[in-house]
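Supplementary Methods, section 5.1.

A reviewer requested that the exact input to the structure prediction be made available. We therefore reproduce it here, unchanged from the version used in the analyses.
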Amino acid sequence: MTLERELAALNRRLNDLKRQQAAIQMRVFTRNHDEPYPADARDGDLVVTIEPPLNWD
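The structure derived from this sequence is encoded token-by-token as follows.
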């Protein structure tokens, strides 16, 4: 294998590791429907809103 091919393979592996690391670092917030949006949430964070149950009466 040539040096260029080995460097390309290492670069692909490094990019794969960076993508995995980015997924691991994602932050998740949970809030009730009547609470404000989390002040420390940033773009890219996942915010889950818990809605009240539906009233079927």
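The first strand starts at residue 28 and ends at 32. These observations are discussed further in the main text.
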